[in-house]
Amino acid sequence: MSFFKSGFMRGLIAQIIGTVLGMGLVVGIRAILGLEAWSSTNLEILEPIIVGGALVGALSFLIGVGVFSDWFKWTKGISTVDHHDPDPEKPSWWRYFSVDFDHKIIGIQYGVTSLIVLGLGGVFALLFRIELSQAGINFLNNGFFDLFFFGDTNPFRHSGGADLYNSFMSLHGMVMIAAILLGVGAMSNYLIPLLIGANDMAFPRLNAFAYWVNVPGAILLVSSLFLGGFDTGWTGYPPLSLRAPLGVQMFMMGVYLVGLSSIFGSINVIVTVIKMRAPGMTMFKMPIFVWAAFATAIIQLTATQLIGLSFQLVMFQRLLGMNFFDSVTGGNPVLFQHLFWFYSHPAVYVFVLPGFGVISELLPVFSRKPLFGYKWIAFSSMGIALVGFFVWAHHMFTSGMTAYLRVPFMYSTLLVAVPTGVKFFSWVGTVWKGKLRFPTPMLFALGAVVVFLVGGVTGPPNGTVATDLHLHDTYWVVGHFHNTIFGGFMFPLFAAIYFWFPKYTGKMYNEFWGKVHFWGMFIGFEIMSLSQMKIGLLGMRRRIADYDPALGIENAQYWITIAGFVVFFAVLIGAINLIQSARKGKIAEGNVWESRSPEWQIPNPAPLINYEKPFHVVGEPYDYGIESDYVDMNPAPLVGE
Amino acid sequence: MSDEIVQEVQEVDPQEEARVEAIKAGSWVFMMLAILTVGEFTTAVIAAPWTFILWLVAIWKAYYVIKDYMHIGRLFKDEESH
Amino acid sequence: MAAHEVPLKEYRAKLSNNRLGLWLFLLSDAFVFAALLVTRFVLLGDTRPELSQGLGLGITALLLVSSFFMNRAETEMAHGNQKGFLKAILITFILGLIFLVGVIGVEWQLAKSHGLTPDAGQAGAIFYVMTGFHAFHVITGILFIWIVYRNGKRGVYTAERHWGVEAAAVYWHFVDVAWIFFYPALYLMGTVIG
Question: Could you give the maximum distance between any two Cα atoms of chain C, in Å?
Fold first, then answer.
């Protein structure tokens, strides 16, 4: 069976055809309306045509890949089965490249896509870091990049190669956010049903849709590079985004599609967690990761709509001249910032909460001790999610918003430190005097705690009005949030990837290269982010392509770039290790980590049907060191069953 | 057995009574919505656009629709139990 | 839909999942409508665009009546009255269609002829974005209703198993709720911009 017949390839071909058709559609509509239908140089005419093409193209991808097939049948009154058995005539990798409803397949699809997109975001970062490694160089403005992105002949470019730094910097931000959302999807889709004793998510088709919509989203995001890029940063503030090159439209549409994935994915998570737990598993007997994923889903479900709306309004303003945000003619740019940050601040809790869940999940296993303060951890996840809705304007202290809003938002922001502190307290309490073991996942979990601590203590100066007025938009902020994201997402993600590696491959990873991965990433990252904070305090601004050597930061800039490469190659080593181990690693049988969790009581890799017979919860999830069980895998039938 | 007898049996069917009751309930909600809409229109156009009152009326109307047309209560009812 | 193969117990467990899932989606969607209302009050404050009051009241009434028939359709189906169901849902569909024509075909053209175009300042932008977002939901809603009507004619639904009908009804009423807030915000609140 050839790769070119997989759902993925069919989707890609459909997207290309759909894009052309969509462009034709807009040209046709323009002709009917009596407007000038086509021009290859006038951007005002080209923009709606290309946006229409991108929209229809993305939709065509989804139709081509086949995520709508079952739903189309439903509209004709034909019912379909929830679970298709894998086709024995097709190779095993086939399922990963086509629409499949199994949550484990979808989880892996999310995970692999996440790592690929992560690598792409990393490459963008390295490219613009080279530009910054010395003052005064003009690395990105050379013939190679001009050739690749059509240089000055690209009709969408404002200023040839000079836009490239801004585009890479902006795309690094958004592509990484997409990668993180995909990683969150990977963890919650793969783990939740296994952890709560369900055989799949509540809505398998919706789950497949939520994954596949990311693919055209990512394609659109990256396509912005070829359509002039965008020089707005990942925030896309108007009025700058109203005047940015066409790439900004692709960026906003890409974000919208990735956002749809968040919304539909979170519906699945919430319903699965509420309705499909194993017998005896009350909310407070769920594995702690499930709490974290549940809290995450609440944010994703509701807040995501606002970034979608804010970007749509910018698109409408660009396409139809509807004036929302241009203050020259009465619009209100600060309104955009409110709508945008209402999602984009809680979004950082979307990034870190699942990671916190993974840390809380792993520490007891490798300390052989109960998780300290289970209920407090569960409440703190919900607390962070809830308080997270009331802090957004701390990104806007310098925006010129109504001044009396500053202090309330400062206090609500500082309040977030309380539930986060609860988590740290619990983690320290859990490892305290434990029988610690240090395989790679544990190293990543502990590394996450350390890195997030740095990110955490550098946060309050940004949340406090008086200091933020000075720190706003400096590299200090860059250092701060890279610490929170690495500590809250990157390190826990790799902890999860290594920890559950035997569960999804049936093999054991190579411990030596795992540790090389960890130490390279940890040391490289800390050099990078601490230097970032330092140069920020010395006056380095965010988002600029060059700086005055008189600031005395050239040396530190140089080391940030070197450390960035160290992190990149450490992750590359990790990825190669994972691929090699999956192919040739030692067979890993049984309960590799002596975990109490139900997913380790079934064979490796997890079978097609997770639990042939539902287990019963008979104890506490984290009572390590106490003679008791969490789950009874072979329960006597309950009365009335 | 003629069809008329079956018909007659159905007419005193409690199921049929429940159907008529349910439709009556729906009509009553519609009446309330209509009265409130006319009320808000008259208030705003003839008297003055008192924003606060208009919000209250909108919430009141939404309450009826959510409770009686969308049956939000069904969410919290355990389907297994009957 | 038409899941006659699965036992009733399993169907009901699924039904309970489906209900929660749909309501969560509506909650999510409600955030868009709420954000549009916020946008309207931030940009226009205590003013509103000049719109035809009669038309506004008329389409509002249309939507309310359609909600009534949608409720009736669902009630008929829940009690196994196939014919009553088909009649009521067809009326709902037609009323929804008229509403759509009323907004896009009449209201928008009327506004345009008074100079209220999408690029006519904040009032135009707000008017078209609010009615446009709502109209998009109406379009999806009447598509949904049309599908349910056709499946109903095929006899897909029964008194016990009619999740499709219920979902269409709940979604349609949600579109109605959104309009319940949009109508006063667009037509009644504030003073007309001169």
Answer: 64
User: Residue A439 carries which DSSP code?
Assistant: -
- Please provide residue C159's backbone torsions phi and psi, each rounded to the nearest 5 degrees: -60, -35
Main-chain dihedrals φ then ψ at residue A616, nearest 5 degrees: -115, 140
Q: CB-based contact (8 Å) between B36 and chain C?
A: no
Q: ipTM of the assembly?
A: 0.94
Helix (H, G, I), strand (E, B) or coil at A493: helix
- Which helix (H) or strand (E) element contains residue C47? strand C47-48
Contact between C36 and C133 under an 8 Å Cβ cutoff? The reply is yes
Task: Give me the residue label for tokens 């902006």.
Answer: A170
Beta-carbon count within 10 A of A280 CB: 17
Average confidence (pLDDT) over B65-80: 84
The kind and range of the H/E element at A632 are strand A631-632
C-alpha separations of A523 from A551, A563, A564 in Å: 26, 8, 10
Provide, for chain B, the percentages of residues in helix, strand and coil under a 3-state DSSP scheme, each rounded to the nearest 5: 85, 0, 15
**In CATH, which of 1.20.120.420, 1.10.3720.10, 1.20.120.80, 3.90.550.10 is domain C8-192?**
1.20.120.80
The CA distance from A175 to A116, in Å, is 10
**AA identity, residue A361:** E
> What digits encode the pLDDT tens for the residues A470-518?
999 999 999 999 999 999 999 999 999 999 999 999 999 999 999 999 9
Q: How far is C61 from chain B (nearest CA, A)?
A: 8
Q: Phi/psi at A91 (nearest 5 deg)?
A: -65, 165
Burial-class residue A9 by CB neighbours within 10 Å (0-12, 13-18, 19+).
middle
Interface contact A322-C124, CB threshold 8 A:
yes
Q: Which residues contact A522 (CB under 8 A, 6 or more apart)?
A: A447, A450, A451, A491
C191-192/A631-632 β-pairing: unpaired
Dihedral in degrees, nearest 10, Cα atoms A425, A428, A433, A436: 150
Contact in structure between A511 and A443 (CB atoms under 8 Å):
no
- Residue contact C21–A271, C-beta within 8 A: yes
Residue B30 has a pLDDT of 95
Q: Is A229 left (phi over 0), alpha (psi -120 to 50) or beta?
A: left
Query: Residue written as tokens 């439709």?
Result: B23
Contact partners for chain C, using 3 or more CB pairs closer than 8 A, are A, B
Q: Is the Cβ pair C36, A309 closer than 8 Å?
A: yes
The overall average pLDDT reported for chain A is 92
Cis peptide before A333 (omega within 30 of 0): no
Share of chain B above pLDDT 70, in %: 79
Structure tokens at C38: 């916020």
**Measured distance CA(A390)–CA(A392) in Å, rounded:** 6
- Rounded Cα gap, residues B1 and B15, in angstroms: 22
What domains can you pick out in chain A, each with its CATH number?
1-73 (no CATH), 118-598 (1.20.210.10)
Q: Judge contact between C124 and C118, C-beta under 8 A.
A: yes
pTM of the model: 0.94
Indicate which of C10, C68, C171 best probes the interface with B, i.e. most B CBs within 10 Å of its own CB. C68
3-state helix, strand, coil in chain A (%, to 5): 70, 0, 30
